[in-house]
């Protein structure tokens, strides 16, 4: 049985920059047996902070893209992001897969992965602004652009679960754990 209906679920964790997606993933991954957290390929400096990723140059990214290494790829905020095919393979063995995604890639992901569920992480705008400023990776103008983008709606027709991460991380983490390992009949 190899059809998509027999694959473990794939979850796209999306939300605006600074909402705490990386923190949530780090908090819940050890609590969800078998969960595979995707390592993204990103065109940023290895010492830029954030999630553990495969940091590559734009030229390396383009070579990987041309070689067909990516199941999904997108650009956002002057960076390129990719999800390698190999990172989705654990779902064929029954392991749920979660990736830190982008609203820009959701329609592409839904076409490729019929089992896709979207985990939409939100937070109040003042919380986002404070978190973005604290991490020190963006200029004031970049922060303003990220906050403006945070208000954009998700594409329609997707299975979406909302997670508010405005308060204590543990509250949002508990909601995320429940979504990643629902009780199935």
CATH C-level category of the domain at 4-38 and 88-180:
Alpha Beta
- How many helices in DSSP terms? 6
Tell me roughly what share of residues is in helical segments. Answer: 25-40%
Instruction: For the largest sheet, list the strands in their spatial order.
Output: 2-7-1-8-9
Oligomer: single chain
Strand content: 15-25%
Shape: globular
- Major sheet size, sense and barrel closure: 5 strands, parallel
The CATH topology of the domain at 4-38 and 88-180 turns out to be Rossmann fold
Q: What's the helix-strand series? A: EHEEEHEEEHEHHEH
CA-CA gap between termini: 20 Å
Based on the coordinates given, report the CATH architecture of the domain at 4-38 and 88-180. 3-Layer(aba) Sandwich
- Summing up helix and strand content along with how strands pair, one would put the structural category as alpha/beta
Radius of gyration: 16 Å
Write a structural description.
This protein is an alpha/beta fold. It has a domain at 4-38 and 88-180: P-loop containing nucleotide triphosphate hydrolases (Rossmann fold, 3-Layer(aba) Sandwich), CATH 3.40.50. 31% of the residues lie in helices and 22% in strands. The chain contains six helices and nine strands. It has helices at residues 21-28, 58-66, 106-112, 125-135, 140-150, 169-180; strands at residues 10-14, 36-37, 41-42, 54-55, 70-76, 79-84, 97-100, 116-122, 160-164. It has a five-stranded parallel sheet, sandwiched between helices. The protein has a four-stranded mixed sheet with strand order 4-3-6-5. β5 (70-76) and β6 form a beta hairpin. α1 crosses α6 (169-180) and α4 packs antiparallel against α5 (140-150). The longest helix has 12 residues, at 169-180. The radius of gyration is 16 Å and the shape is globular. The model has no long low-confidence stretch (mean pLDDT 88). GO terms for molecular function: ATP binding; ribose 1,5-bisphosphate phosphokinase activity. ATP binds at residues 15-22. One of its GO terms (biological process) is 5-phosphoribose 1-diphosphate biosynthetic process. Keywords: ATP-binding, Kinase, Nucleotide-binding, Transferase. InterPro entries: GK/Ca_channel_bsu, P-loop_NTPase, PhnN.
